[in-house]
Amino acid sequence: MEAAEYERLAAAEDRLWYFRALRERVIDALRRTGVPDNAVVLDAGCGTGGMLRGLSAWSSGAVLRGIDVSPLACERAAAAGFDVREGSVEEIPFGDGEFDAIVSLDVLTQVEVPLLALVEFFRCLKPGGVLVLNGAALPWLWSYHDERVQSRRRLTRRRTLALVREAGLRVEFATYWNCFLLPLVAARRKLLPRRDGSSDVRPPVPVVNELCLGVAWLERLLNRTGLPLPIGSSLFVVARRPARVAKVRLQ
Asked: What DSSP element (H or E) covers 17?
C-alpha cells in the first residue's frame, strides 16, 4: 500500500469498528481452539501493529512476532515494542514448526499466489497449530477501496477453503461476516465512492461507528453457536495443521 494508506491504518486501527470487531473475532477463535496463553503467535502481514496490540491484551504471556512486506509498517509496529521482521507471507523468515498459531488478516487478497502463502503457514505451524484468516469477500463488491489498498482479489468461501485444504490444513470453521451490514457496504462502495479516491480505512461518526460494532458483535454471537453466515463483505476462516500429515510441497 501507499504510505498515506499506512498512515490511515495506523490512525484507525484502535478506533474503526471493523478492526475492533476483527480483533474480538480473532481472540475468540484462539480461545475456542485451545491456543494456550503462553503460545508463540505470528501475525503474518501485521501492518502497523494493531492486531499485535490486541493479542498482547489477550495474553501477556504470549510470545508475539510479526512480519510485513512494508518497511514503513514494520517500523511503526516495531516502535510499539513488537518483534517484527520485514518479509513476505510467500517466503516467511522463520523456521519450520515455530508457531502455535498464525493470524493473517486481509493478506490473501493481496499476495500473488495465495496457495504459496498457505503452504508457508502450514510449514511454520507446529503440528496441531491453528491458523486464523480473514479477507475481503465477494468479487462483485470490488471497488475503489480494493484498488487503494492494492488488493488483487476478493475471496469466495468455496475457493478459499479449497486452497486451505490443498495446502494440507484442516478447516475447523468458516463464515462470511458483515452480513447484516452488506447492503450499506455495497451502497457505499458502488454508489457513493469517496471523492478523493482514498480507501474507507477511517472511522465514521462515533454513533455510526458504535452501531456497526454492535451489529458485528451480534454476528459473532451467532457464529459462536456454530452457525456460519451465508454472505458478507468479509470471510473468516479457522483452520488447523493436522498433527500427523506429511508436509505439502508445491510442484
From this structure: helix 17-32
